[in-house]
Write a structure and sequence with these properties.
It contains three helices and six strands; from the N terminus they run βββαββααβ. The chain is α+β, with helices and mostly antiparallel strands.
């Protein structure tokens, strides 16, 4: 079993800093909305993106499916009262020459074996697609 730990602190004025490994991530912890720093909901979407892109790389190697690059766009729908993310929708785009069957299998593995994808799928609706990039 793996364990993870971060350390975060809040500075006066609402800027927060999280430390993970040897990196720092600043984020918005104000009562309003900062125009520069990501807020907690955007960090959640970023975590999902990181998980899925990590698994693009991982399953490219395991399944021998070459790609040139990958990108993802994720949106979230927030319920107001009580506040929670009800739907997360994504488009995962991969520049690859694999056929549609291989692409579908790749996508299935990305979802099935992702820590963050599995966690979020238990908490909200997770829907999306993996498509080949249009050059």
């Amino acid at each position: 079993m793996l364990e993870y730990e971060i350390n975060a602190h809040l500075l006066n004025g609402g800027i927060a800093i999280a430390k993970a490994n040897k990196s720092e991530i600043q984020f918005d912890a104000t009562s309003g909305r900062d125009d520069v720093l990501p807020n907690p909901a955007e960090l959640l979407l970023t975590s999902l993106a990181a998980c899925m892109l990590k698994n693009v790389q991982r399953y490219s190697e395991i399944l021998h499916l070459p790609y040139r690059k990958a990108s993802i766009t994720i949106g979230g729908l927030r319920n107001d009262n009580p506040p929670y993310m009800s739907v997360l929708h994504y488009t995962l785009m991969v520049d690859t020459d694999v056929d549609d069957r291989q692409l579908a299998n790749w996508h299935k593995n990305i979802l099935k074996f992702g820590t963050i994808t599995n966690t979020l799928a238990k908490a909200c609706e997770l829907k999306g697609e993996m498509i080949k990039m249009q050059l």
